[in-house]
Amino acid sequence: MRPSLQRHRSVLDFALSSLLRRKGRNLALTAVYTLVVFVLASLVFFVQALKHEAGELLEHAPDMVVQRMVAGRHDPMPASQVEAIREIRGVEEAEARLWGYYYDPVYGGNLTVMASPDPTLLPGSARIGRGVARNMRVAEGDMVPLRGYDGLPLLFTIQQVLAEDSELVASDLVLLSPADVRTLFHLPEGLATDLAIKAGNPRELTTIATKIVEKFPDARPILKSEMLRTYEAAFDWRGGLMVVVLASAILSFIIFAWDKATGLSAEERKEIGILKSIGWESGDVLLLKFWEGAVVSLAAFLGGVLLAYGHVFFFSATLFEHALKGWSVLFPRFRLIPALDAYQITVLFFLTVLPYTAATLVPCWRAAMADPDSAMRS
Amino acid sequence: MIELAQVVKTYSAGLATPYTAVAGVTLDIPGGQLTVLKGPSGSGKTTLLSLIGCMARPTSGRIHLRGLPPGLLPPGADADPLEITSLPERFLTTIRRRTFGFIFQQFNLVRGISVLENVMLPTYPTGEDREAVEARAVTRLEALGMARHLKAPVDRLSGGEAQRVAIARALINDPPVIIADEPTAHLDSRLSAEFMELMGQFKGAGRTLLIASHDPIVHDSPLADLVIVMRDGQVVSAP
Asked: What is the CATH number of domain B30-56+88-237?
């Protein structure tokens, strides 16, 4: 082996044995460090994956949604408006949608009830999200009662529980036939909740929106790009909510690194003196301390990142569930698709590993620069 | 072999309470002999040893090393005598590592690691082959009767055993000069006598020995070729 490699190997071996000599202290240190990296990495992974999911979902969303506003509030649209909008040049498809919210007093949860255009969903049948099935403790083939606008119960047979993949958006979803939605919410024929529009050329969307508003001043067109912005803002806000957690984690890390930077035990100082007196250079001592810091910080970084990966992508960020997954009692249970951003992991690496390693080196550098004769006098 | 000219060492120089530990020492320490620095505590013996052993630099004065084999000199330093007081830290470390073996009063072993690892420790930064170093360390320890303690942590050793480990460590790089600071301070008379016997063997092997001690077993030993008496940082008696 080349002398320079042999030198690194010997110093690294000694660094490992030094860490083992102070087992309790170093394990506690690594555990705290791992926890900080775990919290930071969980946040990064979670927010990143949610943004990714939102982007994927909106890819299949309509190019534009048109609502009717009355006194500043959303109101059902008359079918005549739907037909007129459909005839505007540039509109390729216009689908009148029926949907609404249903509060279930028994389970204390809000459900999103939508009419499905699928003709195989017959009146009296329902397709429900996993959150609804879980909360109501029902399965395919069971009957579910929903209380109509007049207080009378309507019974639906569950035709299908929606796939797990769609749980992020479909957890609280109940799909009914259009006739059943009208009966449940007392929506007369000829009225729709809103209108989903697909444009032949997405560049014409703004022009189409302008034409709609000119024709129907009470209409409110919402473009897909605006929805995307709202989603991003929502997830950023949720990410922002966790800024408090993030700030605490970073603060603990700074305190932790500062403690390390200012605290070099008398035993460590004496050891540095001994090493220098038996022929180690200041650079050799710094190499030793660099390896010690690198072993602790790399172990903590890898451990923290792997734990965070498991936590977010295998256990659906259980620890952040209540803070991050919305306000409903129907918390969606879903598995996020891993969406890792190399840039963010690199930033996390530089924010955690480098400051710690530097913090380890600073006090040792001071001690290593002292004359080795201090060892003679101890 | 080691020449000191008007060497002064002042600690906290320029501060409110400067302390001069060595005050203008001029000495000539011959090679291949046992020299004892004798004197009470605070007389400057330890400071003088650390200056000679390249552990600290004098405030003023010069120290020369004469007759060092070329292999022990740092690259680029080929003068004879070699003036060591103005060398950069890297050169000083190389000289310290190759030329001097230190035996400290408190032994200064690294706690928590084995006897063998303590002896090998000075060689780690050199990049020398580990197996060769280990074989050499085992030989040194066996010669000092420590073969059965190779894997034992140094914390469990008695005072005499710890000192033999410190001696083996001082010898690992095969230095021509052994420096010992109050080596018998923590030993009983029997172990002190054994230590001097070992020093006799090293002297017989041609090594230069420099011991600071106020123990009569050391300075009255027939092995001592030169006894230098120090007081208040100055040499008060030298042949």
From this structure: 3.40.50.300
> Helix or strand or coil: residue A189?
coil
**Contact, A308 vs A41, CB < 8 A?**
yes
Q: Report pLDDT digits (tens) over A104-122.
A: 887 777 889 999 988 899 8
**E-strand spans in chain B?**
2-11, 19-29, 34-38, 60-65, 82-83, 100-103, 177-181, 208-212, 226-231, 234-237
H helix runs in B53-188, sequence order: 89-99, 115-120, 130-143, 159-171
* Structure tokens that stand for B124 in this block: 């780690």
Closest CA to A29 of A299, A286, A364: A299
Per-domain residue ranges of chain B:
30-56+88-237
What average pLDDT does this structure show over A110-136? Answer: 89
Q: What angle do CA B19, B23, B24 make, to 5 degrees?
A: 150
Residues from chain B contacting residue A26 (CB–CB below 8 Å): none
Backbone torsion region of residue B111, taken as left when φ is above 0, otherwise alpha when ψ lies between -120 and 50, otherwise beta: beta
CB-defined contacts A:B, below 8 A: 97
CA end-to-end span of chain B, whole Å? 16
ipTM: 0.86
In the structure encoding, which two tokens stand for residue B181, read together?
């600071």
Global pTM reads: 0.72
Please name the CATH architecture into which domain A64-222 falls. Answer: Beta Barrel (2.40)
Please check whether residue A172 is in contact with residue A129, taking contact to mean a CB–CB distance below 8 angstroms: yes
Residue of A6, A282, A375 with shortest CB distance to B130: A6
| Spacing of C-alpha B148 from chain mean position | 26
